[in-house]
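Record 1 of the preview.
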Amino acid sequence: MYIDDTCIGCGLCLESCPVEAISLVENKAVINKEICIECALCADVCPLEAIQQED
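->
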């Protein structure tokens, strides 16, 4: 999973992450890839589709 530059830091993804792998840094979401389980729940709630799965 990765977060592109369209992230506005709304925090919806933080609330949806079951393993708390997302934090806000300078008003942008950041995914801790060591914790992330690639469930994509964060991508489902992102209003700007800023969260994508890596190929």
